[in-house]
Amino acid sequence: MTKTSYKTLSANSKTVNKEWVLVDAAKLPLGRTASIIATLLRGKHKTNFTPHVDCGDNVIVINADKVELSGDKWSKKQYISHTGYPGGQRIISAEKLHQKNNIKLVEKAVKGMLPKNKLGAELYRNLKVFPGSDHNHEAQKPKVIDVNSKI
Questions:
Q1: What average pLDDT is seen over the chain?
Q2: Which phi and psi angles does 80 have, rounded to 5°?
Q3: Is the pLDDT of residue 117 over 80?
Q4: Which whole number is the average pLDDT over 90-109?
Q5: Domain residue limits, the chain
Q6: Superfamily for domain range 18-150
Q7: pLDDT tens string 38-58
């Protein structure tokens, strides 16, 4: 064997094979589902994973309004934001956030599991979340992922 037979190949934007996948979040725990979605977005399930390249898939999440939280998390889990003004801290419970915008729970959970840099922002753009079972990406022919088999 020569030294050249051990060449490590890194993926780049031209060699990446991006697919469209569909995840049904109905009756699934929020955190576990979000971690699987973040793995799919990042591309860690692929053999040519490269940490600094967007080599993940485009993920479509349907039935995001039917996601589950266990225990008292609907009332006790809090999402904190700040307006930027003095005294501008805003706290909202998971239940109120779900009533206000029912796809934000999934979006915030997945975004929190992505890198906090430009790559994370680019990966987040590959996430499409829909409250019901209808979505407008049928033309991409997404592959259905069974999240229960990965949990």
A1: 94
A2: -110, 135
A3: yes
A4: 96
A5: 18-150
A6: Ribosomal protein L13 (3.90.1180.10)
A7: 999 999 999 889 999 999 999
